[in-house]
Design brief:
Blueprint: E1 4-8, H1 10-15, H2 22-32, H3 34-43, H4 53-56, H5 62-69, H6 88-100, H7 102-112, E2 131-134, H8 140-145, E3 152-154, H9 190-205, H10 210-216, H11 218-222, E4 229-233, H12 242-251, E5 257-261, H13 265-277, E6 285-288
Parallel strand pairs: 1-2, 1-4, 2-3, 4-5, 5-6
InterPro entries: AbiH
Protein name: Bacteriophage abortive infection AbiH
Pfam families: AbiH (PF14253)
Length: 294
């Protein structure tokens, strides 16, 4: 059994000249699917480069969403009220929510399949018969490094799999937020109640269930106890994926060496904090630049 595991993040693909940043997805969406792009920009709290795209899916501005649809919520006694418009408020909410969930997901899968693998990038000196855990959807490892597919686990799916196998979303579990439907009582307008359900379903549909992915790949994680070296290449170790690292850390020996790549100094600071959260021994954590792996 190989004693080395490479954990691959999006920075690995970027290092090889691939246009896989969330900013690239933003530009693609703006160019190809303007209405979906405008909806994201309007209702999600997201930074200019979309670098926190997945986390932003959990930061839906519910107040703005409901306020925007309130034009379709006339009082029952208004002159312009009609029975035919009873579901207009729910329809307007659903239209925007679907743009931010199922339509956005389809656009993402469409985009990632357009990303080209460069022909002659400078390659790293990787141990080809090691084990690889990649968070990327691309086939960079097999196409550029000829890594056997049997050695690579695409933990969030890949472009070679059906689109519905792609795992994308925020890490805010439904049980960790108060469901809007809990506020419904006998005095709640039925249209408002239906709207609450639409919003609650959005958060459920855009949730990336790490626990489900871990259960699905339980045998892989249980087989890591013999590792001596772990290389984390191009992964931010952000909160949305940190649970995977916790499970790995719990499986390997305390004196396992962790080599963590960083791009900028501020990245090193956040990665150091993640290593502390994982309880890694400071003497076994080594920060490296990816280009040093020659």
């Amino acid at each position: 059994m190989p004693d080395t595991l490479y954990i691959i993040g999006n920075g690995f693909d970027l290092h090889h000249g691939m246009q896989t940043s969330y900013e690239s997805f933003k530009l693609y969406l703006q160019r190809k699917h303007g209405l979906v792009f405008d909806t994201v920009e309007k209702f999600l709290s997201i930074d200019e480069k979309w670098s926190d795209f997945e986390e932003a899916l959990g930061n839906l501005d519910v107040d703005l969403l409901e306020d925007d649809a309130s034009n379709y919520l006339p009082s029952y006694g208004d002159d312009d009220w009609s029975e035919s418009g009873h579901h207009d408020y729910q329809y307007e909410l659903t239209k925007n929510v679907e743009a931010l969930s199922s339509e956005l997901y389809e656009c993402f899968c469409e985009w990632i399949n357009t990303v080209d693998v460069p022909n002659n990038p400078t390659l790293l000196n990787l141990k080809l018969h090691a084990r690889f855990l990649t968070f990327n959807y691309t086939q960079t490892l097999t196409e550029l490094y000829n890594i056997p597919k049997s050695n690579v686990l695409h933990i969030h799916g890949s472009i070679d799999e059906p689109a519905n196998e792609i795992v994308l979303g925020h890490g805010w579990a439904p049980e960790d937020r108060t469901q809007l439907t809990t506020y419904i009582d006998e005095n709640t307008d039925t249209r408002i109640a239906s709207g609450y359900q639409v919003v609650d379903e959005y958060f459920s549909h855009t949730y990336k269930s790490t626990s489900s992915v871990l259960r699905k790949n339980e045998r892989f994680f249980a087989s890591l106890s013999g590792l001596r070296n772990i290389y984390i290449l191009g992964h931010s170790m952000s909160s949305v994926d940190l649970e995977y690292f916790r499970v790995i850390a719990s499986q390997v020996k305390f004196d396992t060496n962790w080599y963590i790549s960083f791009y900028k100094l501020e990245d090193k600071i956040s990665l150091s904090q993640a290593a502390i959260e994982l309880g890694l021994s400071e003497s076994n954590v080594h920060f490296i630049k990816m280009e040093e792996i020659k």
